[in-house]
Write a structure and sequence with these properties.
It is built from nine helices and seven strands. The protein is α/β, with parallel strands linked by helices. It has a five-stranded parallel β-sheet with strand order 2-1-3-4-5, with helices on both faces. Strands 6-7 form a two-stranded parallel sheet. α8 links the parallel β6 and β7. α1 packs across α2 and α1 crosses α3. The longest helix is centred in the C-terminal third of the chain and has 16 residues. It starts with 7 loop residues before the first helix and ends with a helix.
Length: 230
Amino acid sequence: MTASRPTIYDVAQRAGVSKSLVSLVLRGSPKVSPERRRAVEEAIRALDYRPSRAATALAGVRTRNIGLVIDDFRNLWFVDLLDGMRDVLDPAGFQVSVADLRRDAHAVEGFIATHAEAVVVAAEPDAAALRIPVPVAVVGGRAGSIPGADTVANDDTEGARIATRHLLELGHRRIGHLTGGGGSAALRRAAYTRVMREAGLDPLLTGGEHETSDEGATARHGSCSRRIRT
């Protein structure tokens, strides 16, 4: 028979304090004396007590959980993003939960319902649908926007401009641009098009309606090859 998990009441009994005082210790309250805090922490270690995340959320205690919303698990860019987030959040005692909008259209609502303390959006947001009542950051240039959100992004416009001008300076005149959907792709596409037209050349664009995935690349391949050869 599996032993039952220790509860906050077990911790309180072992430490010789009230449940409310154990809750104060778990919240990091400064209102607890060093002696009682030490007794509670020793009881937690002895019992191997682990607070229930669901109960913690319902009680209004900090969950120390950050929600990350992406739009395709197959995109390896998200691996580096998650790795970077954990480099910062792990030492601070935060956990990261990941949801893919392709599989869960209500991912943001799910994070809010489970009391995530903040949400990072690395997908195309729908400003009309997203009203997030916790701190939120949008990663990458996106087609939509979220009211009150901070944005962390590359300068996709300048990057595309530099790349296109570099090829022009090397003497190339037929420069194709394979593009995808989404805000970042739109910024790069616009910059490439502008530089080409400023040079008096016709932009050679293909893609845009396909995803930036293996399947999307396969769907684009034929039309891209035909367009560049034309």
